[in-house]
Amino acid sequence: MIGGYALTPDNRCVNYNTFSSFINVVVGTTHQGGLFAGYSANQGPSSRLTADSRFFGMGADAENTNNELLIKHLYRLTPTYAYQNGAWRVGVELELTQAQWAKRQADGHLGNTTPSANQRVYAILMYLF
Question: 64-88: per-residue pLDDT in tens?
Fold first, then answer.
């Protein structure tokens, strides 16, 4: 979850705008192939903030300093293969994720990004009853 809100010195609440989009496509019955693709973005506050504003949200530190790293963009791509035989399903999934981290600036927007990526492989064994 990215985003959050801020309180200005005069106690006005300002939302952090976010955008998320994803698609999941699966084809086949016995041999199933699928692809999940997703994107999320922290688009920043809905109005200009000052350094005295208090920030609340996932990843914001308790002291409200501007040196915490927050997610600016997040990408995920997950191809999947599964074999269905009766009540049994066996499959494998490869998950590729990249997050673009950034420091919050005094006006509330996120600055230059630093990428961080990971890859995971999942094995799936299911009995459906």
Answer: 666 678 888 999 999 999 999 999 9
Please tell me the distance from the alpha carbon of residue 56 to that of residue 106, in angstroms, as a whole number. 14
User: Is the distance from CB of 60 to CB of 24 less than 8 angstroms?
Assistant: no
Which helix (H) or strand (E) segment is 86 a member of?
none
CA distances from 72 to 4, 46, 75, 84, 113 (A): 12, 15, 10, 39, 7
Q: Which residue has the tokens 């903030």?
A: 49
Strand 88-104 to 4-7 pairing:
unpaired
**Contact residues for 42 (Cβ-Cβ < 8 A; gap 6+):** 2, 3, 16, 17, 18, 70, 71, 72, 73, 110
Which whole-number Å values give the CA distances from 36 to 2, 12, 55, 75, 113, in the listed order?
A: 20, 39, 32, 11, 24
**pTM, entire model:** 0.80
Task: For the chain, give every domain's residue range.
Answer: 4-127
